[in-house]
């Protein structure tokens, strides 16, 4: 249980009128002893029609604050378009809604956010340049400054000093895990204050000397991020910043998942002692995540380990107290007790779902025919164009060349493919190429071959030195030792497709009409789902291998038989009474069934173990 300090010297502050101040290792809110009891909830991972529901669930958890990142690339995916703050991107509406429910808000504007989000929130149009990201390089800070010109005044207008709910703003994000450019950190802080931020500023880093040396700023509150060992972190901070309160900006009570691995969980028996250690003696905490939500579309990031890409799954459930679909878990009630919440839980424990059903999945168009049917500009050159040259953030690129291949067996080598490629010769499937398997056999007859390489971006790296790495067919394609030159590169902007592009794809002419092979194993398929009234459901594709799912034109996300995630969460607001259209793009093997399930299946569990602490 939390015990706030009784009496203490009056707080001091360096910002006139700030809601949160600190002195003598204590935090105060308008002069009253206070602990931040916060939870991570990202507006960009929750359907806007469900924002208020999830905010109320966090209030029922016993929290007094919600914290959210701001994902730059979500607001401005293209440089030539102004940042958007409408609809799903209306962060001001989200912040205001939190305030309406009686909670404070902590904003983490980055510009880098990590968050297992594509490119750590940085736009690929920026990282695709020759720029030193997250540094005092003017090529970076000028671009960030323009973004902050748009974003920060919106946050400033919602500060507590202006009658709003924003009580704290983070400077950058875990910078000590990345670099040591103190000039850049100082620039970031000044960029916030010069644009009107008056509330509490803080940095957040892992609890090690190395990370704090790189990420902490003199005169700015230092917070830590951790999953365990709060006592050791408290001692470390006390030695470095003896007058500051103990603030854990992220307490990892669960973890995210990668494709091909197991589903991470963290039991209450592990969470409760660590949380008790954090909030003891007036400590402050943000539970990461309190509600994780989903990586809808193609926004999931990726990590690198020993040179191998580890793409993040579509679900961001994170074994949070409030599950991906809003269900209140056993961990919810265990955490609620630690936080000292009183009174009844207002929100229902579970969410209504559609009854389980099986719906036929009807193949409509072959893979290449469907993709070719969607109009897109073509870039021609001696080498394949990268995603960045094409101005493409996510999706696929179809590269076409016409080499003459001598008679006999040869090696086709894709020297640097990021991340996965399907290779075709005269319409026939030759195989899959990736970093581990860059070589395929190809048979020549002495004639020209229409060589097609469909490259898929599986997720941009969101953490570590690999942030900003390019995507696509980056190295030369070889036939034996000879480089294939002369390529047409066509961007396939799947994340930007509307129902118009989907209609073009599913009504494409058969492959045979274009000189290719007809195959019902891959390509576009549709299912009609009729419901009496919208409710949540969980979609599964038994027998299918790997691809994407749209519901009524909305790109739900990626599925992959390697797991761990089996079902895709489809929230009720995406459905309508009557008939609903589900479109599937299957890349390797199409099953014939779409299943609607009444509960999620996120895969075989594995207990989360913190990497440092």
Description:
The protein has 613 residues and is α+β, with helices and mostly antiparallel strands. The protein folds into 3 domains: 36-338, Glycosidases (TIM Barrel), CATH 3.20.20.80; 357-364 and 520-606, Jelly Rolls; 377-492, Jelly Rolls (Sandwich), CATH 2.60.120.260. Helix content is 18%, strand content 29%. Strands 4-5-6-7-8-9-10-12 form an 8-stranded parallel β-barrel, surrounded by 5 helices. A 6-stranded antiparallel sheet has the order 17-28-18-24-21-22, with no helix packed on it. Helix 5 (138-156) runs parallel beside helix 6 (182-193) and helix 9 runs parallel beside helix 10. The chain is globular. The model is unreliable at 1-14 and 512-518 (pLDDT under 50).
Summary keywords:
alpha+beta, Jelly Rolls, TIM Barrel, eight-stranded parallel β-barrel, single chain, 18% helix
**Approximately what portion of the residues adopt beta-strand conformation?**
25-35%
Remind me, CATH topology of the largest domain?
TIM Barrel
Query: Low-confidence segments, ≥5 residues, pLDDT <50?
Result: 1-14, 512-518
**Structural class assignment:** alpha+beta
Tell me, rounded to a whole number, the average pLDDT.
95
Family: Belongs to the glycosyl hydrolase 35 family.
Keywords: Glycosidase, Hydrolase
Domain Beta-galactosidase galactose-binding: 528-580
Protein name: Glycoside hydrolase family 35 protein
